[in-house]
Amino acid sequence: MATFISHSPEETESFAEGFGRRAKAGLVIGLIGDLGAGKTQFVKGFARGLGVTERVLSPTFALLHVYISGRLPLYHLDLYRLNAQQEIVAAGLEEYLTGSGVAVVEWWNHWQGVEPASVCHFQFDARGDKVREVTYEDPGA
Ligand SMILES: Nc1ncnc2c1ncn2[C@@H]1O[C@H](COP(=O)(O)OP(=O)(O)O)[C@@H](O)[C@H]1O
Ligand SMILES: [Mg+2]
After folding, report:
1. Mean pLDDT over residues 24-38, rounded?
2. Distances (CA, A) of 11 to 7, 17, 65, 73, 89
3. Closest Cα partner for 79 from 121, 111, 35, 39?
4. How does the average pLDDT of the chain come out, rounded?
5. Which residue's CA is the nearest one to ligand 1's atom 15?
6. Could you tell which of 41, 42, 125 is best to mutate to test the pocket of ligand 1, judged by most ligand atoms within 8 Å of the CB?
7. Helix axes 39-50, 9-22, angle to 10 degrees
8. 122: which residues sit within 8 A by CB, 6+ positions away?
């Protein structure tokens, strides 16, 4: 486990951008943290690192956004509204965790299925108005 302290949304994005640049096909990033903790902000930076040129928006209502303009397909999932594993499966989201692209999943703690071997967990905690503590497993380690 590693820790990163971010002092601004921009800092969270640049932190995430590096992981996007180094991401390999099959990687799953599980984001955990309260509303407003910075999960979507992280995905914006991650997408930029992958070379995504589309605007990244929260998939809270859509459940899934797919971005194909980058080096690898990016599957951006949000499990916030899905509380039972059977709802996640019924929504057809499972297949995106084993795809040929990279999956970044907000509210990963709602996932109750088997943990993919390639998942790296990132936990976000607000430590003040602009300060966020990120505890994470480095995908490159
Ligand atoms: N250091 C920081 N990192 C990320 N977001 C921050 C930070 N400081 C303040 N914020 C603000 O917190 C909010 C995070 O929102 P968002 O990324 O949508 O959260 P989540 O997806 O976890 O619900 C944004 O309004 C952002 O501007
Ligand atoms: Mg979000």
Report:
1. 97
2. 6, 10, 23, 24, 34
3. 111
4. 96
5. 36
6. 41
7. 40
8. 29, 30, 31, 32, 42, 134, 135, 136, 137
